[in-house]
Amino acid sequence: MVRCSCVWFRKYGNFIDNLRLFTRGGSGGMGYPRLGGEGGKGGDVWVVAHNKMTLKQLKDKYPQKRFVAGEGANSRVSALKGSKGKDCEIPVPVGISVTDENGKIIGELNKEKDRILVAEGGLGGKLLTNFLPLKGQKRVIHLDLKLIADIGLVGFPNAGKSSLLGQVSHAKPAIADYAFTTLKPQLGKIMYNDFKQVSIFKVRHLVRSEGTCLNKGMGHKFLKHIERTRQLLFVVDISGFQLSSQTQYRTAFETIILLTKELELYKEELQTKPALLAVNKMDLPDAQDKFHVLMNQLQNPKDFLHLFEKNMIPERTMEFQHIIPISAITGEGIDELKNHIRKSLDEHANQEDDAYHKKQLLNLQISNTIFYSEPPPKNSVTSPR
Fold this sequence. Notes:
There is one protein chain. By secondary structure, this protein is of the alpha/beta class. Helix content is 24%, strand content 23%. The protein has six helices and 15 strands. The chain has helices spanning 55-61, 161-169, 219-226, 252-266, 287-299, 334-373; strands at 4-11, 18-24, 45-50, 66-68, 88-93, 96-100, 105-109, 115-119, 138-145, 151-154, 186-192, 197-202, 231-237, 275-280, 320-325. The strands form three sheets. The protein has a seven-stranded mixed sheet with strand order 1-11-12-10-13-14-15, with helices on both faces. A hairpin with a 4-residue loop joins strand 11 (186-192) and strand 12 (197-202).
């Protein structure tokens, strides 16, 4: 069994996950008609990923949000070929998707030092341009951050997500007996004794199917971050869920079905991610009896879908790799949960490695088959035996 030692947890202040920027490549340099000299090309504008960068830092450092590259040098007698203008680099965090003003994806930055050209510098003056320089490309771009984490933590309000993270991390996130306490995404890490780190992203969930207004709790704004997590961890209250006195009470099983529907409404692909289920508040009276009922319902979910309105039934139900009863208040099941998280991630990583190696082997076999099956050229000369 792998044990975890310490866990740290960070809550983002003034969190920014999207930014709009103006970019312009540098103008080219003037040519020299009399001697046929060419002006230097204008500098380019690049977006470059850095691990320790945030969009808030970028906005604070460059409040004007304008990035213009340097102009190319003019051609002159002492240097007929003008030098290139200075490039402009925009530092951004890892996990950025770059789109243009029309929403077309320019590229993604998924690791340190990844870079994307967003605005090209203009050509220097030369014979083809009558020795007149061209202006650099102008472009408005949008930076959209999608956090990259191992585990995406999802659940309805008051399921105990903040208490759970407080338990595993010894942090003090906002905790209260009202629905919406988390207004910023939270990212934490579990450190195991073998120095393995597992990152957990907590998202505030929008309960659209329960009648909340758009953006209340800011859930769907942050659901995009779940797209880049490797696995999902559902957290549900064994006693069920009721948003307010005006909304219907939901059992633990019903909240799981509604959570699944919420993911489907946002993006169906999220339902294909490996998932675990933490059933919280097992310290409450009758929790064990309710847990046995829930397990029976999860084993035969189709037998209970008649409890829902048709528009609340997902196309497919979630299949959980592990179901762990816990109490974020007493600490019951927390170590088991951490171990299951590690085990599930390791199993999935091994499966990905096996699939990759099988694909590589298949490609090699196909290449060898093509090589040996090719007929010799018509004009080839074969030596006598």
